[in-house]
Amino acid sequence: MTGRFGGPFGVELRDAPKALLSEWSGTVAHLTMYGLPVQDVEADLRAANAAEPLLVVVGGEKVPFEVYDRADYNVAVTNQPHSEVAGLAVLLDRLFDGAELDREWEDADRVVVPQATGKKVVEPDDDAE
Asked: Model confidence over 114-128: pLDDT tens digits?
């Protein structure tokens, strides 16, 4: 994905996520409906992310207690059940203060040109058309 559309982005699926948590030296934010409201901790998360990479753990059913215990922030988008993807989207929007919506990615082979209908993908030099 980043090879085609650019940008620094990474996702890892780990067989042993507990090992990653114990090895991670930076700040950990755990998304869970049982946590503190995102609006109460977003400034702290922004500051932590500015200083070093932030590890975001997206919770789900049956999250081990070690995740809650290791997390520097247990963060709730709401205290009601919701989609994990939606929770991550809201957290990222709060973390980047909405600026991610206007971001242009470096080193892209292709650029998506916004359209009212249809799809338009061009090479970076052609995106002004």
From this structure: 899 999 989 887 655
For the packed helices 84-95 and 38-51, what is the interaxial angle rounded to 10 degrees? Answer: 60
Task: Set out the domains of the chain in order of their start, with CATH numbers.
Answer: 17-99 (3.40.1280.10)
Q: Dmax over Cα atoms in the chain, in whole Å?
A: 53
**Amino acid identity for residue 103 in this structure:** R
Q: Is 86 exposed, middle or buried, given 0-12, 13-18 or 19+ CB atoms closer than 10 A? A: exposed
> One-letter amino acid identity for 59?
G
Q: pTM score, two decimals?
A: 0.76
For Cα atoms 51, 93, 67, give the angle at the middle one, nearest 5 degrees.
65
